[in-house]
């Protein structure tokens, strides 16, 4: 029996679509590519003209795309092609200048035609009338007519080129020459202005992506060589001078400075760095000279992951975007059929003359193009994602941006999310036969290998750098997930962790020991006997209270899930005014509680906020997983749907506000576009609107929708005053006294 070989999906490669195509054509390309066997689900980022395709299907994809819009080409992109962006910009500028020249020339001829309008009535001037108007018409309409003719042969009737061509040729046929030229001229002007507006939006996003450094100062023997960041390998050292961008992720080995992290976090206050600190690509060195050892190649750097995340966000479409794309497919054919009925049915019934009703039908065709709808929605979501990125909030797709607007419950992890994760040993309680110093040394040596912040606080309190080379008495070491440490030290079995760890081993804990202190309690046993306990306190983040207060005011339920004991959880919950909390939870318990909260929610979605290091299962399970402090955390960027780059819970509010603001702008565009089109269709039916008005309505609404969608770029977070930081022990002691 032959074994079944699993089908491995081919890795996709990034391509740029070069050439002119509209938003409606982009939607057609997506549908055709996605429905092609072997191509898989494919999306096009219209704002950046980026598409991801399987390399083996590129030739087929090129044929499909060119069948929809002739002249467009697929060009592969690599990080080394970043310089080519300027060449593309130059080509676009040249094309725009040529388009503007043709528009000005056509406008001049059109003005001449209108100036001599009275003379055209003389039959001897008819030839000149047609010569002037048709010359202006073909100058701006030639490409539209060619595209329409090509698409007709391909069976594609319902696009803007066909509609504009049909409407204007019909106008020429009934001798409405000024209207025909005006429609084609204003359509070209509208397309030109739309392209400029989209390019401006595209450039604003490109500016966000352009903080990719162009060079690195590689230290080679006694020389400093300027090289491409892609050529630098892990372990090599580079020099970063004041004013230069940090080209790669690494660790500082010499020097100290202040670095500007605004490109990564949105924060304008420089951060001090020194020997031993991690520094990331995209930061800007502002003062001192830094020597750093590279820890990641460019392709794996945090900066590159952020850039890929922003560029790839269009692959996750929002429900609204999918709805509008589907709606546009049926809207245009429906309007064309309605226009055909208006042109034929009334004259057949003897109501009015055929030429009058044909003119009304042609006017309806002019305003039936769906571009205003199709372009404004994805551009709005892309602008929202870009705007959030400038505030240090990474959103992985339009669907997550939309989900943020529907959040009814926010669930927080405690340590590292609401609190700083900066632990301090505040109380040492040894059992009989042990001194405080002996108890602390036992715990520090047992926790020597643990990376947990609590273990680090114990080692710091011990006051010695406990290294593996010093642990001559440590025979074995085992981490019990979610419980603590089991170690063999100097021939004795040592347990350090939660009460449950000791109780499972049959160790009796005195009642006084179970009267838990004002922080996290670490219990210690030696050879089956209780040896004492350490009480460790964590500090609440300075703006956690602001974030919780604002969420409560918005009517959003706030919940905390923590592995800490009841006393600590209660103290934090009361200090922050959380709606509810659940303590003594294992990692798997958090998933269970999240599922319960999701099932019992009345409406809306549930978001989970964690530090991204050990909360991956819960982040994945939530409707929206939000990772805090993603700066340099690969786990955060991989696991979460939304990544807050700074350790500021209040930025969750910014994420929600940006999402709501973006959705408001999008629905404004949809409402205005549909409303204006419906009004002018009705006016045209009753003969109250002409082609001039129709083309102004169509192109004006499209341009207005684009400009409105771009407003999200100027979102500013509301000013918030931050309370002073407090520790749990300080808050509780103040309450007691």
How would you characterize the overall build of this protein?
It is an enzyme of class 7 (translocase). Its EC number is 7.2.2.21. It is a multi-pass membrane protein. This is Cd(2+)-exporting ATPase. The strands form six sheets. Strands 14-27-26-25-15-23-24 form a seven-stranded mixed sheet, sandwiched between helices. A six-stranded antiparallel sheet has the order 6-5-7-13-8-11, with no helix packed on it. It has 26 helices and 28 strands. Strand 25, helix 22 and strand 26 form a beta-alpha-beta unit. With 737 residues, the chain is of the alpha+beta class. The radius of gyration is 33 Å and the shape is elongated. The longest helix has 35 residues. It folds into five domains: 61 residues, Alpha-Beta Plaits (2-Layer Sandwich), CATH 3.30.70; 240 residues, no CATH class; 64 residues, Distorted Sandwich (Calcium-transporting ATPase, cytoplasmic transduction domain A), CATH 2.70.150.10; 147 residues, HAD superfamily/HAD-like (Rossmann fold, 3-Layer(aba) Sandwich), CATH 3.40.50; 114 residues, Calcium-transporting ATPase, cytoplasmic domain N (3-Layer(aba) Sandwich).
- Rg over CA atoms, rounded to whole Å, is 33 Å
* Distance between the amino and carboxyl termini: 78 Å
Helix count equals: 26
Q: What fraction of residues sit in β-strands?
A: 15-25%
Overall 3D geometry? elongated
- How many domains? The number is 5
EC number: 7.2.2.21
Protein name: Cd(2+)-exporting ATPase
Membrane topology: Multi-pass membrane protein
GO cellular component, one term: plasma membrane
């Amino acid at each position: 029996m032959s074994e079944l070989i699993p089908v491995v999906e081919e890795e996709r490669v990034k391509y740029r679509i070069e050439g002119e195509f509209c938003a409606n054509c982009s939607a057609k390309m997506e549908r055709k590519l996605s429905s092609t066997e072997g191509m898989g689900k494919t999306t096009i980022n219209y704002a950046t003209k980026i598409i991801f395709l399987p390399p083996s299907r590129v030739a087929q994809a090129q044929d499909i795309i060119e069948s929809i819009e002739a002249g467009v080409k697929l060009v592969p992109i690599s990080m080394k092609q970043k310089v080519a962006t300027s060449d593309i910009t130059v080509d676009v500028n040249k094309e725009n200048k040529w388009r503007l020249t043709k528009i000005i020339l056509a406008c001049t001829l059109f003005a001449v035609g209108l100036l001599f309008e009275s003379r055209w009535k003389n039959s001897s001037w008819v030839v000149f009338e047609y010569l002037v108007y048709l010359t202006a018409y073909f100058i701006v309409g030639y490409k539209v007519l060619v595209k329409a003719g090509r698409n007709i042969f391909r069976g594609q009737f319902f696009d803007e080129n066909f509609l504009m061509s049909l409407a204007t040729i019909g106008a020429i046929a009934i001798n409405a020459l000024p209207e025909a030229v005006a429609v084609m001229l204003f359509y070209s002007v509208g397309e030109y202005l739309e392209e400029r507006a989209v390019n401006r939006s595209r450039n604003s996003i490109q500016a966000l992506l352009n903080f990719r450094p162009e060079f690195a100062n590689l230290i080679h023997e006694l020389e400093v060589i300027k090289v491409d960041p892609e050529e630098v390998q892990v372990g090599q050292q580079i020099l970063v001078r004041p004013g230069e961008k940090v080209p790669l992720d690494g660790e500082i080995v010499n020097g100290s400075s202040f670095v500007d992290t605004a490109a990564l976090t949105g924060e304008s206050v420089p951060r001090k760095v020194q020997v031993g600190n991690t520094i990331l690509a995209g930061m800007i060195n502002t003062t001192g000279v830094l020597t750093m050892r590279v820890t990641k190649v460019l392709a794996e750097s945090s900066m590159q992951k952020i850039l890929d995340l922003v560029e790839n966000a269009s692959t996750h479409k929002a429900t609204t975007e999918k709805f509008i794309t589907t709606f546009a497919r049926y809207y245009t054919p429906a309007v064309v059929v309605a226009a055909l009925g208006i042109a034929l049915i009334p004259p057949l019934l003897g109501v009015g003359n055929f030429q009058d009703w044909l003119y009304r039908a042609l006017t309806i065709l002019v305003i039936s193009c769906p571009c205003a709808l199709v372009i404004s929605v994805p551009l709005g979501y892309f602008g929202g994602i870009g705007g959030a990125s400038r505030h240090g909030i990474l959103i992985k797709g339009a669907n997550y941006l939309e989900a943020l607007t529907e959040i009814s419950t926010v669930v927080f992890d405690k340590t590292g999310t609401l609190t700083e994760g900066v632990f301090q040993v505040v109380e040492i309680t040894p059992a009989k036969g042990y001194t405080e110093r002996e108890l602390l040394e036992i715990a520090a040596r047992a926790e020597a290998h643990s990376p947990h912040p609590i273990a680090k606080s114990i080692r710091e309190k011990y006051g010695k750098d406990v290294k593996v080379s010093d642990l001559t008495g440590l025979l074995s070491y085992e981490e019990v997930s979610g419980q603590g440490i089991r170690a063999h030290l100097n021939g004795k079995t040592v347990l350090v962790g939660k009460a449950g760890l000791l109780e499972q081993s049959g160790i009796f804990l005195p009642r006084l020991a179970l009267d838990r202190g004002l922080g996290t309690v670490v219990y210690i046993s030696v050879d089956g006997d209780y040896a004492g306990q350490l009480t460790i306190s964590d500090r609440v983040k300075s703006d956690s209270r602001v974030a919780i207060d604002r969420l409560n005011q918005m009517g959003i339920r706030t919940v905390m899930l923590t592995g800490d004991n009841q006393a600590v959880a209660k103290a934090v919950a009361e200090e922050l005014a959380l709606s509810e909390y659940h303590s003594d939870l294992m990692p798997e318990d958090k998933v269970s509680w999240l599922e319960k909260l999701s099932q019992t929610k009345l409406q809306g979605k549930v978001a989970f906020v964690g530090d991204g290091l050990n909360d991956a299962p819960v982040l994945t399970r939530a409707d929206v997983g939000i990772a805090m402090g993603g700066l340099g955390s690969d786990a955060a960027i991989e696991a979460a749907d939304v990544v807050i780059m700074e350790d500021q819970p209040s930025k969750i509010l910014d994420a929600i506000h940006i999402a709501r603001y973006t959705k408001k702008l999008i629905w404004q565009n949809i409402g205005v576009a549909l409303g204006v089109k419906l009004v002018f269709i009705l006016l045209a039916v009753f003969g109250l609107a002409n082609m001039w008005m129709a083309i102004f309505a169509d192109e004006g609404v499209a341009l207005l929708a684009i400009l409105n969608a771009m407003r999200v770029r100027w979102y500013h977070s509301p000013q918030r005053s931050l309370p002073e930081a407090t520790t749990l022990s300080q808050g509780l002691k103040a309450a007691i006294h």
